[in-house]
Amino acid sequence: MKSTWTSRFTSFLFILPYLAAFGMFLLFPILYGVVISLQDFELLSDAHPFVGLRNYITIFTPGTHENSIFFRGLWTTFQFVLYSVPLLIVAGLGMAMLVNALPAKLRGLFRTFYFLPYALSASVMAVIWLMMFDTNAGFINSLLQKLELTGIPWLTATPWVWLALVLTTLWWTIGFNMIIFVNALNEVPEDYYEAAAIDGAGAWNRFMSITLPTIRPVMLFVMITSTIASFNIYAQPFLLTRGGPGDTTKVLLINVLDQAFVRKDIGSASAMAILMALLIMMVSIVQFRLTNRKEKV
Amino acid sequence: MGRTRRIGLLLLASLIALFVLLPLVWMLSTAFKNDFEALSGRMNFLPQKPTLDNFVQGLSGELMNTPILRWIVNSLSVGIAGTAIVLLIDSMAAFALARLPDLPLRRTLLSMFIASLMIPSVLTFLPMYIEFNTLGLINTYQALILPATAGAFGVFLLYQFFVSFPKEIEEAARIDGVNKWKLYTRILLPSAVPIMMTLGIFTFMGIYNDFVWPLYATTSPEMRTITAGIAMMATGSYTQSYGKLMAMTTIAALPVLILFIAGQRSFVKAITSSGVK
Fold first, then answer.
1. Percentage of chain A with pLDDT > 90?
2. Closest Cα of chain A to B255: distance in Å?
3. ABC transmembrane type-1 domain spans which residues (chain B) (predicted)?
4. B138, B191, B238, B263: which has the fewest Cβ within 10 Å?
5. B26–A128 C-beta distance less than 8 A
6. Using one digit for the tens of pLDDT, what is the confidence trace for A49-95?
7. Is residue A191 a part of any domain in this protein?
8. Does the residue A87 lie in any domain?
């Protein structure tokens, strides 16, 4: 194909609008964020003197406020990842298998039911659960009282806050994992199971020796996406527990945004955001390595 | 499979469905209760004195600092505008990457876009805020629309589709002297309608449901999106007005729930093609 200067130019025009958006609202902010993290950047001040790595050093200096909120936030987030991710995977796979075991006519219906909460926004989800978990008038405590049990301070005391956060997260996002697993299960070749059935393998054996190995890449994908999503948790503790009781559920993202918008220290908050992003990206890179997937370019 | 086992599975599936749907049913039921009944702790799914007051008060703007109708209009507007821009610029870019081999830096750009899919949003959040603040665009529609146009997901999704499009049709068109723009608008775009619908639903729901960015990118009550507005209500003076809150969440959830049920297939397709295979 002939490729003149004009032809190359007109080809470039097609990509220009997106490239502009990409440059202005993705590439530039990434680079600018690095610059900000190297500055003493107060939100309301006009001068932003360059301070080198000071913001980073402060975060790693024990005893400073920044050190405390970064690492305590990180630990809180890590706890949430630890509690939520195994459930998100196991329950997601379990629900996918359950849906697939239903009569064909009912599958679509139940899949829609389970997937429905995923369509809601974070604030709608949170407000619904604020009401469900309300200590005095909430649905769950009313139910417990009917059963002559005492009410539970779901959003104000440990360990209940964790249970509440994990439950709402499951309710809200499990449909996503279920859909991915349903798709993966449908792609396991039917004759594998037939061959195993002839060999007299039981249901558990078939699951362990056929289903699990075949869906392993998808399992890994779900594991990584769930970990990243849980790492980014914000709306649930922000709206449901307000980080409480005390600082128990103040996750990293809450602390980073507080540092930026409450303490108005954008420089230090940017340094924290970059460290957090690096941690998240390390998880993604592990995914690429483990699944060994190659994109066609 | 045994009959008892089948019934057992169905029972289990129904029990889970109950757990999933109950909060939504309770939301709907509470929206029709007055504040007194909503706080009474009674577990009646049918309101004793059903009332439309929560909806009427909410929609008429009688509630302090909560112009709900305006929020809905804001959310729908920025959702539609953002989706339109994404569909246009992403399809043009994907077309160039997949179909115009003389595009300068083709491979570099493609790798860069794919790599950007791994960038967590926390990395761009604060600098983007400062960028919009410097441009004087905080608390404007631009701030709610533009950041959504930079994502590479749509480019990648459409690129995969355009790459698999048969070459013969394109070559026949080229011999007929069709230029690039016509190739894009007359031949590739019409064939891409289903996948564009998928991307459209996905993008719209993403913008409509976005939570953290609109919370910080808007500062005055009338610029809030419904998602941010409800969050402000819930953390502000309406904490215990469950009837009103539930009427608002019902209104807020309705557009996406309808879109979601209508476009569920499309939506599932977008998710499963987002990189699992």
1. 65
2. 10
3. 72-263
4. B191
5. yes
6. 999 999 999 999 999 999 999 999 999 999 999 999 999 999 999 99
7. yes
8. yes
Instruction: For residue A273, give the nearest of B102, B113, B122 by CB distance.
Output: B122
User: Domain count of chain A?
Assistant: 1
CB contact under 8 A, A239 and B235: yes
Task: For residue B224, give every residue at least 6 positions away whose Cβ sits within 8 Å of its Cβ, in sequence order, or none.
Answer: B71, B74, B214, B218, B232
Helix extents (H) in B32-152: 35-38, 53-60, 68-99, 106-116, 122-134, 141-145
**φ/ψ bin of B139: left (φ > 0), alpha (ψ from -120 to 50), beta (otherwise):** left
On whether residue A118 sits in a domain, the answer given is yes
Whether residue B38 contacts residue A127, with contact meaning beta carbons closer than 8 Å, is answered with no
- How close does chain B come to A293, measured CA to CA in Å? 9
Q: Give the range of the structural domain holding residue A262, as residue numbers without chain letter.
A: 66-296
Residue A63 distance to chain B (closest CA, Å)? 25
What CATH code is carried by the domain that includes residue A279? 1.10.3720.10
Q: Which residues lie closer than 8 Å to A157 by C-beta, 6 or more apart?
A: A245
Asked if residue A244 belongs to a domain, the reply is yes
CB contact under 8 A, A132 and B272: no
Per-residue pLDDT of A83-131, as tens digits, reads 999 999 999 999 999 999 999 899 989 999 999 999 999 999 999 999 8
Checking if the pLDDT of A294 tops 50, the result is no
Q: Residue A50's beta-bridge partner residues?
A: A39
Q: Which of A184-188, A240-244, B63-67, B198-202 has the lowest mean pLDDT?
A: B63-67
Residue A185 CA, distance from chain mean position? 23
Q: Shortest CA distance to A274 belongs to which of B212, B148, B128, B126?
A: B126
Nearest residue in B to A91, CA atom? B16
* Backbone phi and psi for residue B180, each to the nearest 5 degrees, phi listed first: -60, -45
